[in-house]
Specification:
With 518 residues, this protein is an alpha/beta fold. Among the domains are: 4-17 and 29-180, Rossmann fold (3-Layer(aba) Sandwich), CATH 3.40.50; 418-515, ANL, C-terminal domain (GMP Synthetase, Chain A, domain 3, 2-Layer Sandwich), CATH 3.30.300. The strands form 6 sheets. The protein has a 9-stranded mixed β-sheet with strand order 2-1-11-10-12-13-14-15-16. A 5-stranded parallel β-sheet has the order 4-3-5-6-7. It is globular. The mean pLDDT is 93.
Length: 518
Amino acid sequence: MHLGQLISKASRLYPHKIGVKCRGKYFTYGEVYRRVRKLCSVLEKMGLKTGSNVGMLCYNCHTFLEAYFATALLGAILVPINYRLSGREIGFIVEDAELSLLISHFDFEPLVRESLLCAGKDVPVIWIEPESQKGFLSYEELLEEAEEYSEDAWGPGDDWTAQIYYTSGTTGRPKGVMLSHKNCYIHALSAIAELHLTDSDVWLHAAPMFHLADAWATWAITWVGGTHVMVKKFEPRTVLETIERERVTITNMIPTMLNLLVKHPDFKAFDYSSLRVMLSGGAPIAPELVKAIIEGFGCDYVQTYGMTETSPYLTVSILKEHLKALPPEEQFAFKAKTGREFLCVDLKVVKENGEEVERDGKEVGEIIVRGDSITKGYWKLPEETEKTIKGGWLYTGDLATIDEEGYVNIVDRKKDMIITGGENVYTTEVESVLYQNPKILEAAVFGLPDEIWGEIVCAAVVLKEGESADEKEIIEFCKERMAHYKAPKKVIFLNELPKTGSGKIAKRILRDQYASQK
């Protein structure tokens, strides 16, 4: 089986159903499949074949979905690229991924020019919406002239690489994560079962499609014949309007996005009655925010946890039936946890010696996982692959507890844990306290080197509009709610926190910047 078969199936079962809605353009599944096959022919005519790597630099758009399926159908490999990266960073990907072609929105023409210069490569580019510009290969013009590709020509097996996603670089040098056709369709099938996806579902692509947190829905929603609705990029009011107008039933956003939605001044002005579930992941979430989401949107909430390397989901905070009888506040606490293992995944929390921790919700260990949705490795980095995948288990680097119900709760990344005066401080615990402060919009906690303590706890915070606070006030707020050694010794006030392309807070940037200022 291969991923190209999913759009073929949707076109057979739902040929006249609107499958994609993109900024005023509507496409039936029959039309999408024809466009996908035409794009296959374009790629083939340009010399691409099985194993060729195609870069994609684009906003959320129907063209992104078409490229995902066309490369899969051809046996080529799609390399989605974060358009927030610099020209030098994109140039690294162009060179490292050995791109044969780049598909880019014309808005990024200066960025593409710079990146190709940095890469020292002359890669052909197909341009999306070049308008009347001459001398540029136009995506739509090429499709208009192309014939439809024959799906029967596909040859590789399901272990063939379908995409390469470059990690956001929170740990340094970006690595290309290879995902196979099997990785993606096993994850999609599991998501269909876990989230009860059907042809009545309407998925909102609000998070970037270059990131797997949203891209997995390309496969799952298409497989069941649901509808894809796309917004160009995240903007709170646009997202709220779109949920109402398009009768969105399900979507995924990181907690930062959801925080901005529920605190938007016009939040209560829209109708969210179509929403049945809101997914979130990429960062811990406070039970108070979970409560605000459930009550504000009037829908269910599922916290997810995963990695690019795992297609992405590893856990979901879906409640077992008997837990639904708990009082609301206890349910909110469970829903804010990292969750229990995803359908296609085996998960353990282990100590340094490899033994499993006690299922008491207290003992901390590292999450390790295995299953058919797990990456086969890093592109051209066999040593990194061997470090991460040992004995068939992928070591996530995430520290967590697990309770008697099997629900995992991440306490920190191994690299983020602070050791101050010989005591372990988990940054997520401190951040959870900071988020209880009504003046704080965003917070990130990290360690800074210190001659006396080894490391000190430092907090970078963004205050809500119109609020004011000083360092002493924030430190005292934390000391009143936790052990004093866990409270920040230094507080930095910022207008915004640095983010990775996936929207996660980039603590490495904060650590590097403020460690160098000491």
